[in-house]
Amino acid sequence: LFSSVEMAPRDPILGLNEQFAADTNPSKVNLGVGVYFDDNGKLPLLQCVQAAEKAMMDKPTPRGYLPIDGIAAYDSAVKGLVFGAESDVVKSGRVATVQAVGGTGGLKIGADFLKKLSPNAKVLISDPSWENHRAIFTNAGFEVGSYRYYDAATRSVNFDGMLADLNAAAPGTIVVLHACCHNPTGYDITAAQWDQVIAAVKAKNLTPFLDMAYQGFGHGIKEDGAAIDKFIAAGLTIFVSTSFSKSFSLYGERVGALSVVCADKDEAARVLSQLKIVIRTNYSNPPTHGGAVVAAVLNNPELRALWEKELGEMRVRIKEMRQKLVDGLKAAGVKQDMSFITTQIGMFSYSGLSKDQMVRLRNEFGVYGTDTGRMCVAALNSKNIEYVCASVAKVMA
Ligand code: PMP
What we know:
By secondary structure, this protein is of the alpha/beta class. It has two domains: 12-45 and 315-396, Aspartate Aminotransferase, domain 1, CATH 3.90.1150; 65-287, Type I PLP-dependent aspartate aminotransferase-like (Major domain) (Aspartate Aminotransferase, domain 2), CATH 3.40.640.10. The protein is 47% helix and 14% strand. The strands form four sheets. Strands 2-10-9-8-7-3-4 form a seven-stranded mixed sheet. Strands 1-12 form a two-stranded parallel sheet. The protein has a two-stranded antiparallel ribbon with strand order 5-6. Helix 6 links the parallel strand 3 and strand 4. Helix 8 packs parallel to helix 10 (226-233). The longest helix is centred in the last third of the chain and has 31 residues, at 301-331. It is globular and about 60 Å long. It binds 4'-deoxy-4'-aminopyridoxal-5'-phosphate. 4'-deoxy-4'-aminopyridoxal-5'-phosphate is lined by residues 34, 102-104, 130, 178, 183, 211, 213, 243, 245, 256. Residues 27-391 form the Aminotransferase class I/classII large domain. Homodimer. Pfam families: Aminotran_1_2. GO terms for molecular function: transaminase activity.
C-alpha cells in the first residue's frame, strides 16, 4: 500500500525550527517562526489566562462534548470582538460564528464550506502570502492563484497591481485578504485603499475571506478590525477567520473561529447548519480548554481589561524592537536606509535580504529567518538585538 508513497517536502517554517533546535551555536536566534517572545526570550503565559485558568481549577467542571459549533459564550465573544457586540450585524443575528481549531481551522472550515457552495470558483491569495493559505485552499480542491501585493523595488504594496488583479478576477472568485498585519511582508494597505478593494469586490461580485490572525498586534483591537467594519458598511457578505494563537499567546491550545456574515438571520441559520456539517465530518466538535479560557477572559470585564493591557504591551514591545533594529543596523554600519522596518506592522518584517544572505545569516551566525527574507521582529529582545544587527550588517556588507 505505501510503497509508492513519496516523501513530502518539509514545512518551510517548521523545518527551520528543527534546524534551529539542532544548531549548537550558543548565540543562535530564531526569527523564523511567527511567535511572540517577551524581552527575556520566553513565550509569555498571559496573566489574564492564568487568572482564568485559576478560576477554572478552583471550580473544576467535567469535560463533556462541546456543541459542534463550540462554546456559545465563546462564539458570542468572538462576534463581539470582531464585529462589536452592539453592531447591527450581530444584533440582527446575521453572523454565523463557529469555534475552530486555531485560525487554520477557521480557514479550513470556510474552505470546505465554500467548495460545496461554489465548487468551480477560483481562489486568489496575496503574492506573497502565509504559505498555508495556498495549501489549505488547494487541499480543499480549489485552483489557487494570486493577486499582486508586494513590490520589492519600492518596498511597499503594489496597490495598482493588486487592484488590477482583483478587477480582472472572474465573478465569484474567492479573495483571501489579510485583515491586518500582513504575513509575511508587514505591509498593510491604507484605509482609502481598502475602500478601493471593497469597491472592486462589490463590482466584480467576488467573495471576500478576511484572515484575522493578528488582531491587536497592529494599531489596536478596534483599529485592526477597521477593514472588517468597512466590508460590513458596504453591505457585503464576508468570511472572517480569527486566531487567538498570538493575541492570547495560546498557540498550542488551538483557539480560533470562523464567522460568516450573511444577508439576514435566516440565511445565517442555514449557513451555520452547513458549517456544523463540515465540522462534524472533520473532527466532530472542538476541544474545550482554550475556548473556555478565551471566553472567560473576553466575557469578564476585569480580565478583558487585563488582556487588553497585556496585548498592548506586546504590541508596543514589537514596535520598540522595530526602532531598535533600524537604529542598531545603522550603528552596526549598514549604509542603506532601513527605516522601512518601522513602517511595517505586526510581527514580521520583510527585510529585503536575499536568499543567499538569509542562508549566510543562518549558517555563519545562527540567525534564522525564512529564505524570503522574512524575520519575526516579535522574537527580538534587548539581549539578542545587537548580535542580530551585527550579523545582518556583516551579510549586507
Ligand atoms: N493566518 C495567518 C496569516 C497566520 O500567520 C497564521 C499563523 N501563523 C494563521 C492564519 C493560523 O493561525 P493558527 O496558528 O491559530 O492556526
